[in-house]
Structures are given as structure tokens and as C-alpha cells.
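Annotated sample (chain length 318).
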Amino acid sequence: MLSRTADHLFWMSRYMERAENTARMLDVNYQTALLPQSTAVSELGWRGLLSISELSGDFERRYGEVTAKSVMDYMVRDERNPSSIFCCLRAARENARAVRGALTTEVWETTNQTWLEFNRLLRENTFERDPSALFEWVKFRSHLSRGVQVGTMLQDESLHFVRIGTFLERADNTARLLDVKFHAVESDFYGAADARDQEYDFYHWSAILRSVSGFEVYRKVYRNVIQPEKVAELLILRQDMPRSLAACTQEVVVNLKLVAPDATSETLRRAGRLHADLEFGRIDEILSTGLHAYLTQFLDRVGDLGAGISRDFLVAVH
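Output written by the structure step:
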């Protein structure tokens, strides 16, 4: 496969996944903001969302005060924010258009229609009337996109690069979400939490789980009250949890093996090492060194892995 084609497929899927992840975080923050809470606590939540995407500086230069409306405008439809849902869906569509021949008609039409419909929804003020409805729509279109890819594309290199992009982006996002949300309880988490307001804890950790569709999964797996260390275990080490770090890195390794020639053995080795550390890791060992330190290192390794994939297969820097 031409490296330029692989590049467009890789980034098409990353941008679609990024749009979904942004919608998930915005929706949870919006729903949480409706609960009784102080202005300071509400602002902390919106600041955390900007921090996840490393956009705090750009936002403050252009918008100043952090409010629910300004953050949602910035993250949903700001054309100058490359991580906004608007820009992500546009970039996904442009990458898909560039490799139209490598995609099935269904994949192209789904991606193109998502971009066109999103613009229509913005024009009709759906976002102002019901933000949650728009976020649910973005999530649904991302699910539809992945389903069409797996259900219609030949299982060759094209699909493998699409899957690598999807799961590399998802691993990065889950790690950022965990890091920022655990930081919101104002400590570098080292295991069993201090006695805090139990009601706040429940809503806080429930919000984290709901943002990755993990609330019902948590109940099914652990069958007890929500505990921070169990939330961390579910989203880091459980390979049967679709958005966990372990599940994402496993998918990256599987698909890399299918496209990696001998020349890329170092990239594959790093991916395999990263997954092995998660596959055989234990949550008490991770927490003993501090969750923030662990997740910071994980993000560095994911960034390094992404750079390796770009160097070995892709042509453009995004």
C-alpha cells in the first residue's frame, strides 16, 4: 500500500474517534453540571476538559473566562480549534475523500453524510436547544462509521490502518481522561482514597464511567459500590473492557502484526512491550508509584508509538 493512502486512512479513523471522544466528555460534563454544585466545582470540571486535550492556553487567550457555554462552543464548533468536533469531522471527511478508491461506497457515504448532517444540525440550532442530543448523534455516527468499516471493507491493509488509528486514538483519550479526572480529586492517587463525601464520589466516578460507556460494565464486573481503584483497574487493565488501555493496545498490536514488514520490527516491539506491561500488570503495583506518574509515562509511550508508525508507514505530519 502507498504510504500516502495509509496516512489518510489512519487519520480518517483517528479524527472520527476523536470527535466521538470529545462528544462523550462534553456530554458527561454537561450532564454533571446540571447537578447541584458550586460555581467553583462546575468551573473545575470544564477546566479539566480543556486540560485533557491540552487546549487550556489557547482557550484562555481567545475566550478568557471559563464557562459551560464558552467551553462547549470552543469544543463543538470553533473552526480555529483543531480538536473541535467540527474540525475533526471535517478532517475525517477530507481524509476519506482523498482515498475514496480505497474505501467502500458505504464507508465514504457514511463519513460524508456525517459531515453534511453535522453542519445542518448546527444551522438548525440543535446544539443550542439540546446539547446532549447533538452529542448522542455524534457518538451514534462514530459507531455507525466503525460498523460500516468492519462490515463492508475487505480485511486487508486498508482496514488494518483504519483500526490502528482508531485504537491508538482511543488509548490516548482514555489515559488523558483518567489522568485529569483522578487529578480532580486533588491528589496523585496511590490507592485507597481518603474519607470523602460519598455522594460526591459516586457522581464523580459514575461520570468517568459513563463517559466511556463503562457504568453498566462496572456493575456487571465488580457488583459493588464504585471505588476509585476499581475504576482505574477497569479502564487500564481489563482486556474485556472495549475502551480500556489494555484492550486498545491489544488491537494496535494485532493490526500492526498484519501490516508490519521486518523493517518495522522496532515499532512492533514497542507496541508489544506496551501491551505486555498492561496484560500482566497489577493495579496495586500501578497505584504504588502513583497513577499520574503511570499515565504520564503511558501517554509518552503512546506518543512514541504513534511517531514510530508515522515514520514507518505514513507520509504526513498532523
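Annotation: The first helix runs from residue 3 to 33.
Annotation: Residues 153 and 296 are 35 Å apart (CA to CA).
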